[in-house]
TrEMBL record:
One of its GO terms (molecular function) is fatty acyl-CoA hydrolase activity. Residues 215-424 form the BAAT/Acyl-CoA thioester hydrolase C-terminal domain. This is Acyl-coenzyme A thioesterase 4-like. Belongs to the C/M/P thioester hydrolase family. The active site is at 242 (charge relay system), 334 (charge relay system), 369 (charge relay system). SUPFAM superfamilies: alpha/beta-Hydrolases.
Amino acid sequence: MDHKQCTVQLSVQPSRALVDEKFKVLVQKAPPGAQLTVRSHHHSEDKQDWEAFGHYICDSTGALNLSKDPSLGGTYEGVEPMGLLWSLRSVPGSKPGLRMRKKSIETPMEVTVSVYLGHLSEGFSEQRALAAVVVERWYMAPGVRRIPVTEHSLTATLFLPPGPGPFPAVLDLWGGGGNLVEYRASLLASNGFAAMALDYLTNELTKTTGKMVENDYFEAAFKFLEQHPQIVGSRIAMWGLSLGTTMTLKMAVYSNVMKLRCAVCYSGSHIQPVDGSVKDIMEYMHKKEENTRINENQEVIWRDLILPVPKDPALKVDMGRVQCPLLVVVGLDDQNSPSYESAMDMKEMMEEAGNSHLLTLLTYPNTGHLIEPPYTPHFRTTVFRSVKNTDLFMVLWGGETAAHSRAQEDAWRKTLMFLREHLCDRGNSAVTSTSNL
């Protein structure tokens, strides 16, 4: 085919959108019945390159619609309009175990979508694209305010939606990797909730006292939100992932300060020394390190670390005392945490206590530990450095790419519905998506 005579048209709409919004990819004026490869490419903040691609055949008019036409091969197959995002993988020759995460949420994730003649699987840099467009994917909608928080010795970032509020709020906790992770909180604010990302593990927090944070650290974060003039103090939720779930359940049940309106727990457990702090929980897990498995690929598997589920009530949160609506989300292929076994025990405890009506449980087959916002690429294994250990090692998180990605989309939608149901007055217009980019 003569590229000089090629007039292929490519459109991706919307070209600027939040990361939880779908786009539509259309190809027009290609040769009728032509074999085409549609590829996405992203150069991340840490200077790594990522790609995804699908193999397609144009119709008799030379048109292709990724929302209707199936990919016949590539990094995804079938009718998958967002496959160009959720199947992103590091390009051949990259370091093993990379994970793509947005660090600066005040800038967009830029993705170049390109069309090539033929069904290609490699060598894209040596080929000339028939057409290409750059797409912006944002975690922070226009008007969302990012406010660093250091009061009460907190290490946190508050995100406020546009407008005067007051807004219901979410206290957002990530897991055992530490650091201040902002992208989920900023996306929540883009959907109308005030959200505060809270770091509770990073070594920076120990510089003053030389100790890990105590439970009152989380209560201080809650009180900060409760007293904020743009937040409805009686409508605060807590959302934890992995170790964040452990702390969320502890505070929801045992804190006399934190009166949560509802709680969301992803990929975590209620198993812990209930009288302990973060340090005590970490030491409890450390003592059970003999339960760690390493597979034939030298990948660390931690899912058995705190199994079997203990019968000692001092080693698991008393779920019968939960008084707020609770959403629990687990992947059935979670290789990092016994989230399913924990969820079943939590459910049984709540049924025995008569408060199981407060529990909403979502379980997803072939889904791993890292359940992220929708269209985030799936990572079955990544290099990991724990807070207590400076060594790097490969960790198995689990999940199969297509199923895991569908779970992320479904769980995000249902979580937003859950938060709106329990944090908002009916008809409350203060919580609306602010995704008009």
